[in-house]
Each structure stands twice: as C-alpha cells, then as structure tokens.
Amino acid sequence: MSAVPTLKTTPAPTAPPESTTQHGNKAHTDGRFGYVPVQTRSDRFKSVNVADFDAVTGREAVWKLSPVAKFTDLTAGELDGSVYPISSDPVDGVTVDWVDRSDARIGTAGTPEERAAANAWSTFEKALAITVSGEEAKEITVTRADLGASPRAAHVIIEAKPFSQATVILQNTGDARLSENVEIILGESSNLTVVSVQEWNTGAVHLTNHFASVGKDARLKHVVVSLGGSIVRVNPSVRLAGSGSDTLLLGLYFADAGQHLEQQVYVFHDAPHSRSRVTYKGALQGQDARTVWIGDVLIGNKAAGTDSYEQNRNLVLSEGTRADSIPNLEIETGDIVGAGHASATGRFDDEQLFYLQSRGITEEEARRLVVRGFLTEVIQQIGSPTLEARLQETIEAELLSSASLPAAVEAR
Amino acid sequence: MSVLEIKDLHVSVQTDQGVKQILNGVNLTINEGEIHAIMGPNGSGKSTLAYTIAGHPKYHVEGGSILLDGAEVLTMTVDQRARAGLFLAMQYPVEIPGVTVTNFLRTAKTAIDGEAPAIRTWIKDVRGAMTNLRMDKSFAERNVNEGFSGGEKKRNEILQLELLKPKFAVLDETDSGLDVDALKIVSEGVNRAKENTGLGLLLITHYTRILRYIHPDFVHVFVNGRIAEQGGPELADRLEDEGYDRFLVPEIVN
Ligand SMILES: Nc1ncnc2c1ncn2[C@@H]1O[C@H](COP(=O)(O)OP(=O)(O)OP(=O)(O)O)[C@@H](O)[C@H]1O
Ligand SMILES: [Mg+2]
C-alpha cells in the first residue's frame, strides 16, 4: 500500500490548506514542505487524435499504476467504433439516440490525455447521446450488455439542459474490451446525477474517461461503482466551469482476487464559488486484488472562494492485496474557503473478526457487518433507492462468493 | 443452575522460538452467581486462560476440557461459545472500522438471542445502559472502540456485558487504566449485570482495589499457568501486603 501525497501551491495561499486524517492503520496528513512539485494538472498534453500520442510505455503519469501490457489492443490496436446494442425504458424528458461525430456537443466537455482515450475518440462512428430536459426529477437506466469480447471504441454524451433534473444510470454488464469517452455537459442550474455501474464479466477490460463540464449554479453528482471486470479504469474529470457550480463525486469499488480497479479523479475549480466533495471507498479481498485511486484537485486562479475536500478510504479484508491512494492538491489562488484531503487504508484482521465472533456474530455476518458499515456511507448518497438496495445485495453476495476467504476461526 | 468447569487445562502458543507451554493444568469450577477473582503476576497466563475460554485461535489446547453445563466448550466455534452464554471482556478491546456501536450491539444481540430484539425496548435498554455507564450518547454512532480512550473501551465492554446477558463472563483486567470514578462506574455495571441475570464471574486483576467494589466469593492465585492457591476474600488482602514472592520461590529453585 502506498499513499504518496503531493501538494503544490502557486502562489502560496494566504490560508494554508487544511488537511485531515482519520482512522485507519495507514493514514497520512500532509504538511506544506518536502513535496516534489508535479506538473500542473491542467498543463497535461491533450489531443483527440491517437497519432499525437507516443506508444504507451507504462511510465507515463496516467499509466504508471495500470497493467498496460494487458490492454495494448486498446492503446495501440484497431478498435471497432460501430454502434452497439443498448436498452432502456422510455422516460419523459430524456431522449436516448445515436448522433453523428459532427454533433456540436462533442468535444465540449473535455479532451483525451492519454492514448487509449484518443484511440477511442479517433475511431467511434456514432456517439450515444442521452439528453435530459424538464425540471421534474426522473431516472433512466441505460444498459449495455452486449459489447462483445473484441476491442471497441465508444463515445457517450450526457447532456442536462439548463434547469433540468435527472438521474442517469449507465449499467454495464457482459463481456467487454472497451475504451471510451463520456462527455457530461451540465447547463446552467441543472441538477444531474450520473451513475456508472461496472458489473462486467470476469475477463472484461474497460477504460473510460468521464469528462464533465458543470455550468453556472449547476450541480453534478457523479458516482462510479466498479465491481465486476478484470481491469476497470474509470477516470472522472470534472471542470467546475460556471460560478456557483457544485459537484459531489462518489466512488465505490470492491476488488476480488486478481482484479484491477482504478480511478483517477480530477476536479478543476475553474470558476469562483465552486464547491467539490470527493468520497471514494473501496474494499479489497483476495490474492492480487488491486485498487488505485488518484485524486487531483486543482483550484485555478479564477476560482476565488472555493471549497473542496477529497477523501479516499480503503478496507483491506485479506492478505495479498494492494491499494494505492494518492491525493494531490494544487492551489493557484490565495482566496479559498477550504481545501483538504484525507486518505487511509484500514485492515480488517483476525483480531477484529475474533472480537465480533466473541459477541456471538458468525464469521460471515462479521465480514458483512464490516463491509456494509464501511461502504454504506457512499451507497446512501447515490439517491436511487432501487439501485442502492441492489448494490447492497450485490456487494454482500460478492463477499460470500469470494473463494479466498481465510479459513474460519475455529477453536482446535 | 449453570456451571462452568475447567478441568486440567493445558494450553500452548506457537512462537517464533517454537511451541511455548503456558497453561499447565488449570482446574476451576464456577457456579452461577459466584464471583471468582484470579490474581497473579505478569505473564502467568491469566489472559491465556481468558482467551482460551473464548476460543481465540492463537491458543492451542493440548489437553483438558471446559464444560458449560456439561457441554464441551472446546469444540465450539468462537461465536457458538458466545451464543452458549460465555462472554469475555477483553484486556485490550479491538477497534472495528466501519461498524457503529449501535449497529454492532444490535447485530450481537440478534445473534445471541436468535432473533432481533423488539426495537422500542431495545433502544431504551441501550440508552439506559449507556446512561448508567456515563457514556455519552454520541458513542452510539461512533465506530466500535475507534478512537476510544482506554477507559471508554472498558466501559464499552461492560455495556455489552449488561446488554448481552451472558451466563458467565470473564473480565480480563477490566480495572486497569481506570481512574477511581470510572472504576466505580464500571464496577456498578458489573454488579448490576450480576443482580439482573445472576451471572457467574471470573475477574482477572492485579489489584485489590476493584475488589472493594466487586466482592469475590473466591480468590485464586495464578502462577506459572496454574492455580497455586485458593481462598476467600482475605487471600486478596494478603496478596496485596505480601505480593507473589511466596509463590514464585519454588519456581526459582527449580
Ligand atoms: N502469541 C504469543 N506469542 C508468544 N508468547 C505469548 C503469546 N501469547 C502469550 N504469550 C506468553 O505467554 C505468557 C502468558 O501470557 P498472558 O498474556 O496469558 O499473561 P497474563 O497473566 O495475562 O499477563 P498480564 O498480567 O501481563 O496481562 C507470557 O509469557 C506471554 O509472553
Ligand atoms: Mg493479561
């Protein structure tokens, strides 16, 4: 496990960023000194064209914690950019259709910073557009279950028109070798929740970048739930573009033996009085269960009066796992309301198990209790009761099915 | 009438240097409603006895038996023992991340009773027990033992004792690290539990001060993994005056 914080401030803020650390066997607080400056996050090279990127080596900042050799087909190979099957029930105020590459919204929320994303961008034939209008609250689930096992490119647009409101759930199941870009565009004063649920088949590889642009006084709740798949890398990148914009970024992941679940979260405060909260929680169980969380927050020089806080917590349920947790905070303005981060990795061990069992609780129930307690904070905030209940069950099933449970604690 | 019988118990642990023998034939019978104090020097095996009763996997039973109303405890899993009516208040209670005290207590109570407690009376019981132990309401929403002070952890153990209502409880140095006020509060809790349920107690301690509040019927001196001497409450006072030297001498000669 590692938690290597970097903190860069240009220029020095008048109020030092607050930093908190809480429970966990491994927690950190950062000071203001001794950290190697990193390249300012907004200065990273960007292009929609795959040819503009060198071949991936695995040493790049965006790839250094990913098993790049296992998906060269997505970073360097030819992708199938054709339309694929989707399913969703009709919902008033939400349209779901395929649009051409010439659609004016494409490219407005972000630009790829790495080769797999650019490869997808260069290849997709049509984009799946989910467009929300109307002020009433509504929920739509768009399911992708038939992507197949050959390498694919995809592009998704989720647009919330000004003053509109909705919850959009992207439900991902089945096989996949998918590189994709998702653009999330929030008009003024819109209120959008996007939930991306990865429950892929065991062998699936999914690399996705979610680029969001949040307009004036708009609010984006973005939730990443990664449970199934061999390699799942979901990188949300949110630009708080309008003044008073607000985002809550939630993540929930459960890595089993051999799974690699990664999320690189980036919040760019690019407007005054913007607010962000990031909470990612993950559990790891089984040999070579691996998770990566990188949380970059950049408070730009236009972003006076912002308030941000990011945290990542990991719960280790067995030996043989590795959780990387790396928060970074860059502040370019002296005028901030608050900026902080926390990162901790805690372990559920035999002594805890013994304690719970000594109170009559079975081993199975003890694990369920701990994991449920740990992840509930995130699940509860999703805001979709049906999905919340289903996820709770899925996670508990995952706990039990995991073949790597250590032998039951028994006397003699 | 419940009875807990420990018969010729031999226990070892696996250490880096090999197998280490810790308990060398412990014999002890505790009847319902009785209070037995165990006193003995550091490292004599008191916690080992406590953990072995509870079923900690680290302790290997080489021989002997532990019977609860005639049923062999040693073949039960840790949670089965608790459901059979055994309770261990630990010397060093463990922190449980992600699990609130409320959630933990309800789950444990449900496991032990085999059914969920009636919600209204349960909430009242928990609140009442917490008030009696002078635990602030806010503890209910905190994670079990996480960030609790030493004394708060001990109160939390006694809170569980009162709510889970075991037949027999082993209190492993529940008094250590408590100031006088906390010691009284915790002792009252133990006495209340005994009055309410008639439980039998095995009280492990180094000091007689807790015995001023919880009155033992029997005192056992524990040395080198076995009971070296037993007597009534007066034995505790004698130990306080004389220490354990008298019992340690033969060991040095050997
Ligand atoms: N896991 C272990 N590995 C090695 N030695 C152990 C282990 N557990 C216990 N012991 C040893 O067994 C002996 C008895 O330990 P135990 O904790 O039962 O003593 P105790 O009487 O409770 O002592 P104290 O009064 O300090 O609490 C000690 O010498 C201790 O170091
Ligand atoms: Mg001890």
TrEMBL record, chain A:
Top-level taxon:
Bacteria
Q: Where is this region: Disordered?
A: 1-32
Q: Which InterPro entries match?
A: Fe-S_cluster_assembly_SufBD (IPR055346), SUF_FeS_clus_asmbl_SufBD_core (IPR000825), SUF_FeS_clus_asmbl_SufBD_sf (IPR037284), SUF_FeS_clus_asmbl_SufD (IPR011542)
The SUF system FeS cluster assembly SufBD core domain covers 153-374
Q: SUPFAM superfamilies, from UniProt?
A: Stabilizer of iron transporter SufD
Q: Where is the composition biased (Low complexity)?
A: 1-21
Q: Which GO terms describe its biological process?
A: iron-sulfur cluster assembly
What's this protein's family per the entry? Belongs to the iron-sulfur cluster assembly SufBD family.
Protein name per UniProt: Fe-S cluster assembly protein SufD
Upper lineage is: Bacteria, Bacillati, Actinomycetota, Actinomycetes, Micrococcales
Gene name, per UniProt, is sufD
TrEMBL record, chain B:
Read off the Pfam families from this record.
ABC_tran
Specify the domain of life of the species encoding this protein. Bacteria
Per its UniProt record, what CDD domains does this chain match? Answer: ABC_FeS_Assembly (cd03217)
Q: Name one GO molecular function term.
A: ATP binding
Q: Which UniProt keywords apply?
A: ATP-binding, Nucleotide-binding
- Domain ABC transporter: where? 4-249
In terms of SUPFAM superfamilies, this protein maps to: P-loop containing nucleoside triphosphate hydrolases
Q: Which Gene3D superfamilies match?
A: P-loop containing nucleotide triphosphate hydrolases
PANTHER family on file: ABC TRANSPORTER I FAMILY MEMBER 6, CHLOROPLASTIC
Question: To which protein family does this belong?
Answer: Belongs to the ABC transporter superfamily. Ycf16 family.
Question: What is the name of the protein in this document?
Answer: Fe-S cluster assembly ATPase SufC
Naturally occurring in which organism (per UniProt): Cryobacterium melibiosiphilum
